[in-house]
Design goal:
Strands 7-8-9-1-2-3-4-5-6-10 form a 10-stranded mixed beta sheet. The protein has 2 helices and 10 strands. By secondary structure, it is mainly beta. The protein has a single domain, classed as outer membrane lipoprotein receptor (LolB), chain A.
């Protein structure tokens, strides 16, 4: 019996396209948190992926490649353009959901590219549901779609914590 990764290895060519997900908070407190998205757009050329969250008090963009061990989360915070470097999680959730026959970005700790599933962001949980799915031929992607934009400051969680501490001290 083939596992999920074995199934994808047999695929003739990676899927290239765009999916727009609707987001539904799973707990009442989460529906009021301003960092949870209202919609999520997932784009991939089969080698790289990009996730854009919309409808929050600030936009977050997640960029990575399927073969990488880490990915970048881009956002603006108190006048700083941050590129938070995050490791791909080792644990893949095997929960309820409906899946496409394509790999998921490592930022989502799920078994495959979801049609619908529950994701977690800190203490919040939310369900994503496909609203629209479109194939995009490789030649139709704009140059730079999956590249990191300039002007973001690379940080890990320790550096971000140090920045927060310095900003907090500066307010007193």
């Amino acid at each position: 019996m083939l596992g999920i990764s074995g199934q994808f290895a047999l695929a003739a060519k990676p899927w290239s396209g765009k999916i727009i997900y609707d987001v539904q908070p799973m707990n009442s407190a989460a529906s009021e948190w301003d960092y949870l998205p209202h919609t999520i757009t997932y784009e991939t050329n089969g080698e790289h992926w990009r996730i854009t969250e919309k409808g929050t008090s600030f936009e977050r963009i997640w960029i990575g490649a399927f073969d990488d061990l880490e990915y970048s989360v881009l956002f603006h915070f108190l006048g700083h353009a941050i590129e938070l470097l995050e490791p791909c999680p080792n644990e893949v959730l095997d929960g309820d959901g409906d899946w496409f026959d394509a790999p998921a970005p490592c930022a989502w700790s799920v078994q495959a590219l979801p049609k619908s599933c529950i994701l977690y962001d800190g203490p919040a949980s939310f369900q994503i549901l496909v609203h629209e799915r479109n194939e995009v031929p490789l030649r139709n992607w704009e140059r730079g779609t999956f590249e990191l934009p300039e002007g973001y400051e690379p940080m890990d969680r320790m550096s971000l914590s140090a920045l927060l501490t310095s900003l907090t001290k500066g307010q007193h």
